Amino acid sequence: MAIPTSNVPPFIAAQLNHLLNHFPLTLKVEQMWSGSKYYPGVFDRFTLVIPYCLEYIRWDVIYNVESPTAAPDVIFGPEDEDFHPFHMEFAEGQLGLKSSNKCLSDWNNKDPTRLLALIQYLRDQYVSYQRKRVGEVDDDRLKFEISTIFSREGIEMHMSSGAEKPEEVKFAVPLMDMNINDMVPGCPWRQTQKIFLQVIYPVGRKYMSAPSAPRLKLVSTPELKDLFSIEDVKLPAWLDGMCLAEYLPHLEESLVKQVKEAVSLIDIRRNFIEALACQFGRPLEADPVFCRKATVLSASGVFTFLVHFLIPTQFPKQQPSLLLQSSQHFNSQRAPIKSRPLNDYPWSPRWETSLMAERIFEFLAEEALNFKRQLNDGQLQ
Amino acid sequence: MAELSLHKIAISGPTLASVIQSFSTSPGAVDGLLFGHVTYVTPSTLSDDSASESSTLVATITGFLCSGTINSFYDSTGTVDPSSLHRLLIIGWFSGRRKTNLRPSMREFAVTASLSSMTQFAFSVKNAPESTNFNPCVFLLLSSPLADQPIHTHEYRGYQFRKVTESFDPKSMDIVNIGPAFRGHYGSFSPNAPFPSLACDLGHSPMNEDKDEGSLNQMKQVLKEQKELDICAEGFQVGSLSRLMGSEATNYTAGLENLYEKMLLKVENLARQVERSSAQVLEQENHNRRLRYKFLKSVVPE
């Protein structure tokens, strides 16, 4: 989100922008407002939305425009009233106190990196705070799960409890120790793409003889869907009496295979787009990184039209979706008229890419006449 | 020793109003100290079913000192500087911040934890069956709602900080207003923080004769202060109050009235001086604010 810089004092704006641009996770500023009596237009407090455990936590960062040199204060969420980041380590021993407390005691409002250091520190503390809370839950299965996967890095845990909903413990387990970004040539992603397994354990049901299976769900960083759709992944079944440490290796093994395959499919899509050129001529536009889209110009007599190829991640198992766009017919909003997506035409995944292109070209020669007739009859809008 | 739990926090209406007033007139967030005492109170309304507790512990806020700014007696990490609270008898502190949620913040927690852990500020509980000490653990949080609202403009909440669980325990606030019901409470609201003592003894009473008079400097100071006080009561000694009684009284009344008139004149004069200096202070504050704002605008971080 762009910060309304005109209303924010420069020292706050500099720290906030540095934070938003350099924090390893994508942060958002939900709202900004003023706490000053005399300058109600000068924003000196804001709500940060921070991703945690595949959800979001909201912290209010309170600067004071009247005391610009003072370090900001933070108000945590209403459900985290026991989270006292600087006190926690105080209780755990004085050793670490000096070094990490520095982000507040050495506060310098002219240093734009300070807010980032503070928020990073607080989030790290929050991770251990939640881990500690989860560790205190009186549930044998959970205690066992924690002890067996403790060595895995990057696991985030969250304890949710409320008056109306049953107690639950959520795990966000980062899967596969490999960098997907590095596998994609010319990778445009700024953020490292990751796949997580969300595991939700119901707790506090003491009377149940055998613990029920946790709820499992795969979650990925949003941009990954250009390459690989986790919705297509079928999760292995959770057998009775299973634990996470048993479950994860199989899942990861199959995921690694699927991601590698997805990466190899990029080249097949590229081949296909190249094969299109033999039939349709050079594409007007094509997605050079993931090869998910290509647009060619085609003609049937004097009727010229564009063909958009939308190529699924499962290509060639799934055929591309075609969209025709007239270059001569426009609707009442002066936008070019498009056909409905065409998904049902002769196709075999076993064909060579050149044959695929050839068959599509043949199909379109006929379909163009259909499309033209529909346009002339005014059936399409 | 089990930690004592407060039953409630009592504050007089005017004191609370005054705290809110100093918060709402301040340019930004403020903090300050709370003075008062913690007392065992036997409830006046006896009922049959509340036999469990014969007396309750009440923290009474009798006064406060608003710093007008933040970080006044602690640093950014929330560590209290004990030297800044030297010789003060405090039962806790308060924090006021505009347009924020009514929840203790990270720093407020740290300050309260730090303050209540300092044993040098412990004070004894009044009316306690046995001598018990209490740490300054009262925290009063004031805020104004996030969105502007026409009627509801201020919020407050009182807490006791519990050392064992390291958490804030919300306590009900009992606002005692002046009225017939107040009379019984009157005594508990007399301030008890030590005020700088002014030596204004009536001459030398025999009781003071054999007391150690301290150093020469101290005596000089006392004399100077006495002189200043004497100027205020010029032509009138406290001792001559006795003339109000008996035969001399009629003559003396006129003299007294005269004195009061003079005093009134002086007070009026003083009020005018205060007014003038207040105006100057305000002017200076406005100037400072303008400078600060200019500074804010000019700070371009490297």
Automatic annotation (TrEMBL), chain A:
<keyword id="KW-0963">Cytoplasm</keyword>
<keyword id="KW-0539">Nucleus</keyword>
<dbReference type="GO" id="GO:0051301">
    <property type="term" value="P:cell division"/>
</dbReference>
<keyword id="KW-0156">Chromatin regulator</keyword>
<protein>
    <recommendedName>
        <fullName>BRISC and BRCA1-A complex member 2</fullName>
    </recommendedName>
</protein>
<keyword id="KW-0677">Repeat</keyword>
<dbReference type="GO" id="GO:0005737">
    <property type="term" value="C:cytoplasm"/>
</dbReference>
<dbReference type="GO" id="GO:0006325">
    <property type="term" value="P:chromatin organization"/>
</dbReference>
<dbReference type="InterPro" id="IPR010358">
    <property type="entry name" value="BRE"/>
</dbReference>
<dbReference type="Pfam" id="PF06113">
    <property type="entry name" value="BRE"/>
</dbReference>
<keyword id="KW-0227">DNA damage</keyword>
<keyword id="KW-0132">Cell division</keyword>
<comment type="similarity">
    <text>Belongs to the BABAM2 family.</text>
</comment>
<keyword id="KW-0234">DNA repair</keyword>
<keyword id="KW-0833">Ubl conjugation pathway</keyword>
<keyword id="KW-0498">Mitosis</keyword>
<dbReference type="GO" id="GO:0006302">
    <property type="term" value="P:double-strand break repair"/>
</dbReference>
<dbReference type="GO" id="GO:0070552">
    <property type="term" value="C:BRISC complex"/>
</dbReference>
<keyword id="KW-0131">Cell cycle</keyword>
<keyword id="KW-0053">Apoptosis</keyword>
Automatic annotation (TrEMBL), chain B:
<dbReference type="GO" id="GO:0005634">
    <property type="term" value="C:nucleus"/>
</dbReference>
<protein>
    <submittedName>
        <fullName>FAM175 family</fullName>
    </submittedName>
</protein>
<dbReference type="Pfam" id="PF21125">
    <property type="entry name" value="MPN_2A_DUB_like"/>
</dbReference>
<feature type="coiled-coil region">
    <location>
        <begin position="260"/>
        <end position="287"/>
    </location>
</feature>
<dbReference type="InterPro" id="IPR023238">
    <property type="entry name" value="FAM175"/>
</dbReference>
<dbReference type="InterPro" id="IPR023241">
    <property type="entry name" value="FAM175_plant"/>
</dbReference>
<keyword id="KW-0175">Coiled coil</keyword>
<dbReference type="GO" id="GO:0031593">
    <property type="term" value="F:polyubiquitin modification-dependent protein binding"/>
</dbReference>
